[in-house]
Amino acid sequence: MVVCFAALVDLMPAASPQSMAFEKSPRFHDPSTPIRQGDTWYVFATGNGIVSRTSKDLKVWTEGKPVFDTFPEWHQQLIPGHRGYLWAPDIIHRGGRYLLYYSVSAWGKNTSAIGLVTNKSLNPADPDYAWNDEGMIVRSAERDPFNAIDPQVFADSDGRLWLVFGSFWHGIQLTELDPKTGHRHPVRQTIKPLAWHETIEAPALLKHEGYYYLFVNWGLCCRGLSSTYEIRMGRSRKISGPYLDATGDDLATGGGSVFLNSAGDRIGPGHASFVENDGRSHMFFHFYDRKRGGFATIGDLPIRWTSSGWPEILEAK
After folding, report:
1. Rounded CA separation 35/273 (Å)
2. What is the pLDDT of residue 24?
3. CB-CB neighbours of 228 under 10 Å
């Protein structure tokens, strides 16, 4: 089975001449959910040591400080030969701390782990700024039917905290976290499969009016303008599923309604996250920009809810 994960930026196509004029705009791959501290928005993304980006308006982004200058010993212990590229982070603020989940993996294998690092502040100029390694949260090995990468952390309205993750193998998985520590729940440790497809990864959860919506990626990333990523979705009355698409097909058996795919200069959109800002719901994602020669960048599109209770994208005109 040919497997492409989201993704090692040094395996992405090099910038073409027509994109060089845009190189001052930072790349984005597998962006986290944007999170705000004070008047600044932060996004973390795949890269050496986990890269960060900052913005005042969610439009103009600048490069920030990487999360890791040196790497925890357990990275090498669990994933021998790991080179320091850490994938697909996601972040949430709970109990006075920022909890950042991320993937440690080997390309094309399910020898993987999701780690947690925490901080009281995201501003490197703040005296409280210091990333603290919290170790491994969930792992997978060759014997396991899933791949422990692409984490997204989800806080439910009842106070419970969840981690949805997965890539290829048997698809997307869900497990519960302890909302006080951010680690695996001390009692409820079941790993529940939610969705499957031959090429599936990068899950995200969203809740709206009693439904849980699961967004996943189908297709292949990391191929620049040849990428086939697209975002699909289903919904459920329970966070544990079953998630059904708009035609009633179960995501666990290959269902999934198209939510966002390639169009115009937007190639291979993926890795969705959702933010409420200025009274509107927005979806953030990465894509390869055709007019910039396949430059990997961040997209922001508002969403609205249809009368049948499904989200839809409001495309710019």
Report:
1. 11
2. 59
3. 17
Provide the residue ranges of all domains of the chain, joining segments of one domain with +: 9-313
Secondary structure class of 44 (helix, strand, coil): strand
Tens of pLDDT, residues 248-280: 999 999 999 999 999 999 999 999 999 987 778
Question: Dihedrals φ, ψ of 290, to 5°?
Answer: -60, -40
What CA–CA distance (Å, rounded) separates 205 from 21? 36
Phi, then psi, of 225 in degrees rounded to 5: -70, -10
pTM: 0.92
Pairwise CA distance, residues 7 & 58, whole Å: 23
Q: Which residues are catalytic?
A: 30, 201
pLDDT (0 to 100) of residue 316: 60
Average model confidence (pLDDT) for the chain?
90
Whole-angstrom Cα distance, residue 201 to residue 150? 7
pLDDT in tens, 188-211: 999 999 999 999 999 999 999 999
Length of the chain: 317
Q: Which residues contact 268 (CB under 8 A, 6 or more apart)?
A: 219, 221, 223, 227, 228, 229, 230, 262, 287, 288
Options 3.30.1340.30, 3.40.50.1970, 2.115.10.20, 3.30.70.120; CATH for 9-313 is 2.115.10.20
**What average pLDDT does range 73-90 have in this prediction?**
91
